[in-house]
Write a structure and sequence with these properties.
alpha+beta
Length: 141
């Protein structure tokens, strides 16, 4: 999950159909529990679905590759796909009020730092003239 943080968040919409949002998530350990942290844009209706029905599934897809039968010495094999995946059943918690802005700011900063640390220069929301940290946080849930 640390090396492949791009996840699929899957829950049910108002009609009971699966609804999927693809987003980066990171995790923290709190009181011997793994907590996944992330955000979605306020314009994404997924947060409203989670507000009503907080149980969801999160999937992380790790490295994967096709394996031809030719890679086996006995050739008595069928083609296959090797992969690593993590499935997490979660109970979503949405931040509200004053804590929403604080939590969103913390999650955005942490996510940006984790995703950009290998490039040597972390991106900051105030690096764009039309985008301030306050506007980034107010449009996140």
């Amino acid at each position: 999950m640390r090396e492949h943080p791009f996840a699929s968040l899957i829950s049910l919409d108002d009609a009971g159909a699966p609804y999927v949002t693809h987003l980066p998530l990171h995790h923290e350990e709190r009181s011997n529990q793994l907590v996944l942290l992330g955000h979605c844009a306020r314009g994404n209706p997924h947060w409203r679905y989670l507000q009503t029905r907080p149980q969801a599934l999160v999937t992380f897809m790790g490295p994967h590759a096709y394996l031809s039968p030719k890679v086996y010495p006995d050739l008595a094999r069928v083609p296959t796909w090797n992969y690593l995946a993590v499935h997490c059943t979660v109970q979503a918690t949405l931040s509200k009020g004053r804590t929403q802005k604080t939590n969103c700011s913390r999650v955005l900063s942490r996510t940006m730092n984790l995703l950009t640390r290998s490039s040597g220069a972390a991106w900051a929301p105030n690096s764009l003239r039309r985008c301030s940290p306050a506007s980034s946080v107010s449009s996140c849930v």
